[in-house]
Amino acid sequence: MDRRVSKRLLTTATAFAAAAVLLGTTACSSGGGGGDDSSGASDSGEGIKIGLITKTDSNPFFVKMRESAEAAAEAAGADLIPLAGAFDGDNEGQVAAIENLVSQGVKGIMITPNSSSGILAAIKQARDQGVLVVALDTATDPEDAVDATFATDNLAAGVAQGAWVKATLGDKEPKVLMLDGTPGGTVDTFRHDGFLEGMGLTEDSPEILGMENTNGDQTKAQTAMENLLQRAPDANALYTINEPAAAGGYAAIKAAGKQDQITIGSIDGSCTGVENVKNGVIGATVMQFPTKMAEQGVEAIVAFAKDGTKPKAGFNDTGSVLITDHPVDGLESQDTTWGAENCWG
């Protein structure tokens, strides 16, 4: 997959500012999923079946998304059927889940694709049978393979992470290690590319001393970081795809006695992650909002089921906020007190 496909071109400062502003505006505008075109429709979603397919059913982010979707569906009088892949990267499991949901007569499916391109044929089959499909958290490639996407602008989130790490290093020459996620996902691609953009680096920059895939898993990240530190013991900066990867990376860093040497950035915004920022495990994290993704997805499907109204096509940003107790000039951020009040999980 081309790492640059569908990239939202944002500068370091303006990218994050725009994402932070959208946090405030998205909630106000998200009610437009059926709004003006639904005159005469009942407020009840009784009898509407909605499918949710997450990457896994264990990651706290997806647990919160499922809980939020269940609450939103219940409030609308609809029935939510939650399914998940067996592990991060389980495309075949998600294909089977789509087929399962279509056979159960769902009106719409919300999915966080494990593979942004590998899932396309199954999505097309569902849409061809009249099922509304929206992506949550992770965009498909191409983006218009679904009816709409409700997600964090992960490029902007990556830019914010990279810009904070760069500013925190100050005059030190960057010596960067990267704990990536799962190849083939747009979340992984955008965050990775955004971090490099925020750092002012490219894929081939000599400042990048090593990269490892972790599937966003803490145990895998610890092992990967141990291997990276053997090859690059003088590293001073660490990119992480998410907070579990950051925790695993930190465990390896602490075991090597390098916790005062390496600056760690991350993305997620879980309550555990915010606590880790407060305790100095992670220097900064970028908070995202799974509840907004789930609520807007449910709202879109209920509106469609009632009168055929489709949501706004394309990418709908659900916002992000940089969380750190060590703010830097030029980047808007909130401290861990605010983070603890707005975190999830």
General description of the model:
The chain has 345 residues and is an alpha/beta fold. It folds into two domains: 34-152 and 291-313, Rossmann fold; 154-287 and 324-342, 3-Layer(aba) Sandwich (Rossmann fold), CATH 3.40.50.2300. Helix content is 43%, strand content 16%. The protein is built from eleven helices and twelve strands. The protein has helices at 12-29, 60-76, 91-103, 120-128, 154-169, 186-199, 218-231, 243-255, 271-278, 290-307, 336-342, and strands at residues 49-54, 79-84, 108-111, 132-136, 148-151, 176-180, 208-213, 237-240, 263-268, 284-287, 315-317, 321-323. The chain has a six-stranded parallel sheet, with helices on both faces. A six-stranded mixed sheet has the order 7-6-8-9-10-12, sandwiched between helices. Helix 9 (271-278) links the parallel strand 9 and strand 10 (284-287). Helix 9 (271-278) packs antiparallel against helix 11 (336-342). The radius of gyration is 20 Å and the shape is elongated.
Structural class: alpha/beta
What would the principal axes of the Cα set say about the shape? Answer: elongated
The termini sit apart by 32 Å
CATH fourth-tier homologous superfamily of the largest domain: Response regulator
- Which range best describes the helical content: under 10%, 10-25%, 25-40%, 40-55%, 55-70% or over 70%? 40-55%
Mean pLDDT: 89
Order of helices and strands: HEHEHEHEEHEHEHEHEHEHEEH
Sheet with the most strands, sense and barrel status: 6 strands, parallel
**Rg from alpha-carbon coordinates:** 20 Å
How many structural units, i.e. domains? 2
The count of DSSP E runs of length 2 or more, i.e. the number of strands, is: 12
Total helical elements: 11
| Main sheet strand line-up | 2-1-3-4-5-11
CATH class category name of the largest domain: Alpha Beta
CATH third-tier fold name of the largest domain: Rossmann fold
Runs in which pLDDT lies below 50 for 5 or more consecutive residues are 1-42
- Named at the architecture level, the CATH assignment of the largest domain is 3-Layer(aba) Sandwich
